[in-house]
Here is the input.
Amino acid sequence: MNVIKKENCVFAMDKENLPVLTVRDGEEITFETFDCFSNQLQKETDGFDTLDWDRINPATGPVFIEGAEPGDTLLVSIKKIDIKGNAAMLTGPNVGVMGDELTENTIKIMPVEKDVLKFSDTIAIPLNKMIGVIGVAPNGAPVSCGTPDSHGGNMDCKEITEGTDLYLPVNVPGALLSLGDCHAAMGDGEVSVCGAEVPCEVTVVVSVIKNQNWPLPFLIREGKISTISSKLTIDEAGIAATKNMVAIVETYTDLTKGEATHLLSLAGDLKICQVVDPNKTARFELPLSYLTKWK
Here is the structure.
């Protein structure tokens, strides 16, 4: 059984990171993860000044996958996300979308009970377990685990959850997969700057796909395909996610580029993942049934 302890973590995705585990194509891996604060927030009276900001967004790993070479695609099939503690959140001045109006810091610690997150005595939020940070090493300079880009990273896409197949680019030999920053619940936008941050155990199966020229990353979940793009602005991210989906539709149907664009305008959905990271992330969702030539 391949299990990686949470203490084996990185704070940047980097081709120079030494792998903590080597697996074969098709193997299952369980990642123990800290929450995005490295489990530093344990009570609502904890202060921002007690946080070590150099320990934010740890990602467990990396994992070297045998046979993964630059130009390949890494398929990460997410089998299970098990929550292993209470959820923590924070927001305050100069943080998140409302940071220009907030005058004091707010920390919330919330228990997870059965299938809900106890936000308060009167508010229970259904669980939406998902992985905020998941990616591979870029070929160039290191990228902080807090920043999403074409390698994946801090995409904060709530569709990256149990039952999802996530497709990532392989930029370096072995791919060097890492993941962390799990949430018990998070809405599109992640407007406070975080979701319900929880330590977890995440079980995935990794597979190497050869000879595909796909616009990456993208995911497939519950009969939908979603292209994901992270750019400096949400406008740029939305445009890139849309163009990537048009390219997929052109490849897997008999539609022209113009017809594919019409189809997306009628049957697709352009959605925001997050607007609070150094790069903003959008996704374009389309029912997979429209891709008549998809394998």
Remarks:
- The two ends are 31 Å apart (CA to CA).
- The chain has two domains: 2-150+160-209, 218-290.
- Residues 218-290 form a domain with the Endonuclease I-creI fold (CATH 3.10.28.20).
